[in-house]
């Protein structure tokens, strides 16, 4: 059984059917990319999955648990974390404090049997381990707002990872990055694959083809096709509606 399933999701904005009976599965350990032209409904779909928008119909199941009626916060507790296109970082706090807040939120009362000192130590260790993973160890004491764009994106990712997700939603993690930062982000995301499944929305097709085990193409709110990179590159209709001849080579 798939780790994550969206079944028959529908979202209408007035007369516009932005999400038209979308079904999508993400397997454990998989990086599943969602691509499609502007206005195809990618952000709407991710908002339905993370719970920022209520669906008009359909259901969402993660690891056998139905999330459809849950708030975004409850979905995060159930194992679904999201990285935002617009950063959720506290800009006036240090990277360390941002990470501490996130790991504290995840830990909840799980350290209550420890002394205060030991609990604080455990939280610091988790925060530092996250910084290490995401290449932020050198900038732990910096104010988050002073970080360059690429590092802020990494901090965003680290904050989402603090929730220890089973499924991570990444909404354009390479947006606004130069080639060097993009490549580092690609390596970072690839390194997460064993730890969490990923649903990735990304316009950078090089990154998508490097990362994705499976790609779903959304057009006018519907899934046109799903498959691996070779399938997508060879799909005539995908080329016609979205990719042009760009992927032929
Ligand atoms: N809150 C809203 N109210 C009305 N229409 C909306 C709303 N949000 C999105 N839409 C419309 O729904 C359709 C899908 O938009 P959406 O932003 O999900 O597409 P997208 O694939 O994410 O686009 P992009 O790649 O440009 O971010 C578009 O026609 C958009 O204008």
UniProtKB/TrEMBL annotation:
Keyword Transmembrane helix: no
Organism domain of life: Bacteria
Any Pfam family the entry gives: ABC_tran
Domain ABC transporter: 4-245
InterPro entries to which the protein is assigned, alphabetical: AAA+_ATPase, ABC_AA/LPS_Transport, ABC_transporter-like_ATP-bd, P-loop_NTPase
Keyword ATP-binding assigned: yes
Gene Ontology MF terms in the entry: ATP binding; ATP hydrolysis activity
Gene Ontology cellular-component terms listed: plasma membrane
Keywords recorded for this protein, A-Z: ATP-binding, Cell membrane, Membrane, Nucleotide-binding, Transport
Protein name per Swiss-Prot or TrEMBL: ABC transporter
Source organism of the structure: Thauera aminoaromatica S2
